[in-house]
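Q: I'm writing up a methods section and want to include an example of the input and output format. Could you take the sequence below and give the corresponding predicted structure tokens, formatted cleanly so I can copy it straight into the document?
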Amino acid sequence: MKISHILGLNARSKLFSYVYNTPRGKGIASSKLRTKRILSAADILVPEVYGKFARAGSILTFDWEKLPSSFALKPNKGFGGEGIIVVKKRAKDPDNPTKFLKDTWVTTARAKVTVDDLKLHVLDILEGAYSLQNSPDIAFIEEYIGRHKAFRKYAYRGTPDIRVIVFNKVPMMAMLRLPTKESGGRANLHQGAIAVGIDIATGITTKAYWHGKFIVYKPGTKRKLHGIKIPTWTKILEIAVKCQEETGLGYLGADIVLHPEKGPQVLELNYMPGLQIQLANMEGLKKRLERVEDLEVRDAEHGVKIAKALFAASFADRVLAEEGIRTISARQTLTIKGLRKDKKRKKVLAKIDTGAWRTSINEKLAEELGLLRADNILWTKRVRSSMGVEERPVISLTFWLAGRKIVTPASVAKRTALKYPIIIGRKNLKGFLVDPHIPKAGEE
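A: Here is the clean output for your methods example:
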């Protein structure tokens, strides 16, 4: 990770969190209840609210015994996960283990809490014990999400969440936060949860960071933390972008959980999200932000396509360890994925050009495969050539090279006079060794 690519605290605060975020957007993100109202009105799923306490008198009128077996008690304007009590189940009657107590529960940290304990905690929240500058706050009780089956082996008792950074309608970076015994079942990094980087393109975890170092396994086990496939990944990214569209926040962190039955739900939004996500991904945010700052992004679907094309993680190290380096020729047959029903895939002869950075494709071939349709064009760029200055589209291209699937941005050029309809640049050649010998006909 290059130092020049890292987004620091000052840059985040002065530029991306204040220049691009409106007062209205920051006001929404600062209030969990207001966030719920705005997102619910836009048909974005959020956890259900069971009760709200704006004043001390409401504690007496609330029917505590009707609470379900699991729930979460939170401050509306809490910061850093402080002041949250996550209840996992009802406590058993010590005199009759087959019965459950109506007024006592067990938290994810295995502590018992009674109705009186909850009432006192609500009073603390109302007095501002967990809000910034100790200002008076509102307490609320919401639905407990639980663990999706995909994460049961990796998370300790509590609910994992997925943090997605979004800028200019493009998902920039993501991480999975796994609760541990130390964090008391909470997915908060400051309390001891594990940060696991996620490849934006595939939704597969890549690296895990915990207590200042990278780890391979869940603590105390031999369960690998890389290679976890996040379910409904594209939908998660699109939801994160829609949160930006609804709040007007130009730069935000969306915390999303996977409900075991209902799917992705938004827990909360942050207009100044933490920067540990860069360590979890071993990649700097600054360079990524600069790459999309001036792009015209149409909607959530378009933004996700741009993210998957630009920010696919490098699996070179894993390829080297598990598959070995693959040798390819300077002229290589590859298979391109088309978007037309009658042209789903096509084999073409490509030139492997280590002197070029980006992959480019002939306009005629791109049109034949349906790759020039509007929803597949990521952006356009101005190019100066012998014909003058012209606008060239950059598309999302999927192809298979020596058995490996590659998704990448590709420039579209008029290459009718050239021998090869597609050139593969070195950006897409990680994990490959290129033999400069160009085989003659019949040698391939």
